[in-house]
């Protein structure tokens, strides 16, 4: 594998590999096809080894589906993917980034995300499928101002 895999926007043709990667990482695949244009992928040798999405809802994005193939972890791939999502959002009128994380709040704090009660997340973000499905999970809500 190259030291730095290439990042690019995802296309519908990437859907099978993205879904397989999310399943491998025990993340939901629900709604992925509908927001495929919100995904960035890391690929190496025609194989997707990482993905992340920024699902837009009004003035907010919901960061979701951050996954890296287990054999490729600890190489900065997720960091590059999340950075790309946030940079892309900052180039728009998006003001808030929100995410739900059951296991990595300290990881997302490096970008300025902080824990908030889920009911304090921006209303438009709470309408996302990610938040709707989270009512039965133990995920923590995190928020970051982008402007």
From TrEMBL:
Keyword Disulfide bond assigned: no
Gene Ontology MF terms: acyltransferase activity, transferring groups other than amino-acyl groups
Residue span, N-acetyltransferase domain: 5-147
Cross-referenced InterPro entries: Acyl_CoA_acyltransferase, GNAT_dom
Listed name of the protein: GNAT family N-acetyltransferase
One Pfam family here: Acetyltransf_7
Source taxonomy: Bacteria, Pseudomonadati, Pseudomonadota, Betaproteobacteria, Burkholderiales
Keywords, comma-separated and alphabetical: Transferase
């Amino acid at each position: 594998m190259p030291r730095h895999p290439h990042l690019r926007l995802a296309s519908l043709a990437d859907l099978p590999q993205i879904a397989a990667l999310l399943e491998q990482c025990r993340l939901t695949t629900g709604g992925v096809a509908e927001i495929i244009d919100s995904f960035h992928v890391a690929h190496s040798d025609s194989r997707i080894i990482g993905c992340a999405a920024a699902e837009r809802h009004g003035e907010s994005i919901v960061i979701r589906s951050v996954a890296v193939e287990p054999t490729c972890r600890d190489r900065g791939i997720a960091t590059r993917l999340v950075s790309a999502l946030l940079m892309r959002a900052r180039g728009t009128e998006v003001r808030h980034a929100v995410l739900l994380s059951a296991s990595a709040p300290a990881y997302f704090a490096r970008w300025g995300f902080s824990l908030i009660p889920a009911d304090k997340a921006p209303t438009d973000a709470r309408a996302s499928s990610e938040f709707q499905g989270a009512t039965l999970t133990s995920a923590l809500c995190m928020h970051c101002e982008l402007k």
